[in-house]
Amino acid sequence: MKDQELKIIQTAIINELEGYEFYKMAHEKTEDPSVKAAFLTLAEEEKKHIDWLKELFEKVRDSDEDVLKLSMMDNPPSPDIFKWENLDRTSASLAVSVFGIGIQMERMSVEFYENAAKRSEITAARSLFDTLAKWEKVHLDMFSSEYDKLQNTWWVDQGFAPF
Fold first, then answer.
1. Cα–Cα distance for residue pair 62/67, rounded to 1 Å
2. What pLDDT does 60 receive?
3. pTM of the entire structure?
4. Rg (CA), the chain
5. Are 66 and 18 in contact (CB under 8 A)?
6. Where in the numbering of this chain does the Rubrerythrin diiron-binding domain appear (predicted)?
7. To 5 degrees, how large is the angle CA 150–CA 40–CA 77?
């Protein structure tokens, strides 16, 4: 039972590390200061998730008790990272690509944590995985909203708009 949770946590750490590296790369590649800052903030959030999961891994590995108190967090608030009005329209093409990839990554993370919650036999672990899924849903919703706005702007800028 505990081994299953440890494997899930290990996979979660890898997922968060990949997200961290992706957002760092996006931060380095974009020139718009507000987008740069937003991607850096996302990278820092992923780093917090990594640290959180590592701590959880150690507690689960080293204890027979139900020590998953981290799972008792409230629903995460939106980090309110992206502000549409601050986006430099010249970086819309890069942003559309990055947001599209980000949406895919966040969607897969949500699915991973939801499935982990279903598979776990430890009640507190299920709660933790549900919380992590909620965190990733916040990112997914944010990305989806901004992606739609960026995509419409990009289509108009390229002269492909159907109107």
1. 10
2. 78
3. 0.69
4. 18
5. no
6. 7-146
7. 75
- Mean pLDDT for each 10-residue chunk of the chain (163 residues)? 79 87 86 80 87 83 60 46 48 70 87 90 80 86 81 74 60
List the CATH code of the domain at 2-158: 1.20.1260.10
> Of 54, 56, 156, 150, which is closest to residue 102 (Cα–Cα)?
150
Q: Angle 33-62/92-119 helices, nearest 10 degrees? A: 20
Q: How far is CA 54 from CA 10, 11, 97, in A?
A: 8, 11, 31
Indicate the domain borders of the chain: 2-158
* Amino acid sitting at position 75: N
pLDDT score at 114: 94
